Amino acid sequence: MNIKGTITSVIYETKSSTTLKEVGLGELDINKSPAFFMLNIDGVKVAVSKWVSPKRTRSYPYERVYNTLLASKKITIIPVVKDEGTAGDRDFIQWDTIALMSLLDVYVILIYYIDAEKRITTSGKEKITKQKLDNEFINKELKKIPNYHSSALHWNLKQMKSLSAIVDQAKSNYKKISDKTGVKLKSEKGTDNFLNKINQGVASFMNFSRTRVEEAQKREFVTIQPKEALSTATKAKITIKNYLGGLYCFIVDEVELKDNTFRLIEAKHTASGKIPSKGDVKDGLLKMILYCNLEDVTSDGLVCKTTPVLKLTSSKMKGELTEKSDSKKRNEFYEENTINKGDRKFLNSLFDEAKINSFEVILENG
Fold first, then answer.
1. What is the pLDDT of residue 222?
2. Starting from the edge strand earliest in sequence, which strands make up the sheet with 74-79, in order?
3. Which of 10, 200, 309, 366 meets the CB 3.0–4.6 Å disulfide criterion with 265?
4. By C-alpha distance, which of 90, 47, 39, 82 is closest to 66?
């Protein structure tokens, strides 16, 4: 099944974000800072998140961004390239990541790594680890944003103009890191090809990114993830366009037809805990933001209606709970599953968020 839709604007109210620790710019070391925090820049407070890789499926970057969405000004820091060595992964920034941040009104600071250490894996292979971002460069960029009075979209498009230079700097730094650590990195041909696409213009970069994303979508379509506990095998590809030129290619874990409406189910599962981790849940919530704002939706070319659903399952869970459950049923569920006070508060805020934004939440055994 192929589902397509568009997003022209985002209207969504978050209720489940984590309180941000405040950090002053003068004391900021981005390599030691929390994954998300409130930054005080000469009395102006901005919410900041950081990615550890340009790939959006690593280390819950969506959770990090989600936790900053309540702030009036939001910034996220993304490395343009991350190379772990020939025995590891190498990821590049994608156009659609920047477009998605623009859609969420998040200012992007593109950055590179400047240092790293060697690590020997249990199988005896060499990788680089503990990669460090250029803190001085980031601080200079952060200082600009409180006085930047244009939109995040405008800022991000300006960032794109410096992308080639930042990738080139990343390439140069990785050569130094390789010389220092003795760890062989991925072939520079891949980075050169990436640079070539960037230098050909935005359209070329968009198409290059799109091909990679669509390939990843195809791979995920035929894969059942360990953190999914599905009641059906009905996955679907969903492709979302927006006015910024972004094209987001996701996989809906389950699709269920009910009352002439397709229920788009994002599934999160845990085999060890009572409920999935907050990181997993908030990763799902960012999908809810997108699915709640879908317009002009079609399924295999036919116009259809959709309802977003966030399904949380656990092998240890007893009973079932939804956002429609009353307080008595909630308390009975919490008691039966010995849900602690902090998780009860989080789940209650999650149910409130679902009601306000008109999506469903289901907790059940899986």
1. 54
2. 22-24, 36-41, 44-50, 74-79, 106-111
3. 309
4. 47
DSSP lists the bridge partners of residue 142 as none
Q: Where are the beta strands (DSSP E) in 243-359?
A: 247-252, 254-258, 261-270, 295-299, 302-303, 305-314, 320-322
Q: Residue with structure tokens 């140069």?
A: 172
Q: How far apart are CA 199 and CA 190, in angstroms?
A: 14
Taking Cα atoms as reference points, which of 74, 80, 61, 298 lies closest to residue 209? 80
**307 close to 262: Cβ distance less than 8 angstroms:** yes
State how far the Cα of 361 lies from the Cα of 37, in Å rounded to an integer.
Answer: 27
Query: Looking at residue 44, what is its pLDDT?
Result: 95
What pLDDT was estimated at residue 209? 61
Mean pLDDT of 345-350: 97
Contact 116, 128 (CB under 8 A): yes
Q: What are phi and psi of 78, to 5 degrees?
A: -130, 125
Q: Are 284 and 302 in contact (CB under 8 A)?
A: no
Considering only 204-208, 223-227, 282-286, which range has the smallest mean pLDDT?
A: 223-227
pLDDT 10s digits, 288-332: 999 999 999 999 889 999 999 999 999 999 999 999 999 999 999
> Which residues on neighbouring strands pair with residue 313, listed in sequence order?
269, 364
Question: Could you tell me which of 255, 265, 258, 279 has the C-alpha nearest to residue 362?
Answer: 265
Model confidence, pTM:
0.89
Q: With a cut of 50, say whether residue 230 has pLDDT above it.
A: no
Is residue 221 scored above 60 in pLDDT?
A: no
| The 3-state secondary structure of 59-100, one letter per residue | CCHHHHHHCCCCCCCEEEEEECEEECCCCCCEEECCHHHHHH
CA 309 distance to own-chain centroid: 18
Helix (H) or strand (E) holding 137: helix 135-144
Phi and psi at 188, nearest 5°, equal: -65, -15
Q: Give dist(CA 287, CA 251) in Å, integer.
A: 10
Give the whole-angstrom CA distance, residue 359 versus residue 16: 14
Contacts of 180 (CB under 8 A, 6+ apart): none
**What's the pLDDT tens digit per position in 32-59?**
999 999 999 999 999 999 999 998 877 8
| Structure token pair of residue 319 | 């009973």
